[in-house]
Write a structure and sequence with these properties.
The chain is mainly beta. Helix content is 13%, strand content 41%. It has a single domain, classed as Immunoglobulin-like (Sandwich), CATH 2.60.40.2550.
Amino acid sequence: MKACVKPLAGMILAGLVAGPAWAETLVEAYGLGRAKPVPEEWTKIDEDLSIRVRLLRETSDKLAARVGAGETIRVVAEFYVQPGAADRDIYLTCSLTFYDAEGEGRDYAFKDRPCYKGRLHDGLETFQPLVLDLRLKPRETDPKGTSAVILSVKDRIINDGVALAPTYDWQGGR
């Protein structure tokens, strides 16, 4: 039994010294900096309710993967309900912030703002837009590279939510 304890103790000590294997920076966690942009994210709050966020060019419905100086991005958020979901009340609130290519965050553009109130079946098998009219124009003082728009959506009825982080490659910065 003693022979097993020493190697185990050594592995535990090595793990404590090295730190957790899953530790990462904000740049790695959100895919910032030199990472390939992902201008559309889609995930579920629960088995019935999905949220999609897309970064679109202001003048079209094309995804804004790369953004140059003077360009404006529309942040478009929608919900979708799976077939077979039971109808119920829905009350969504949204919070939005940004991280630049170096992982520097900004204050919230808004926090816990109501963005949809109605019935779950409003989005049954169709994308139902959230009340979110946001346009983003990157600044020339922002660092070049992949930046993120962080949208948190919470369903106040079931007290659950998600955070989505679509990204764009800012080409017009320093």
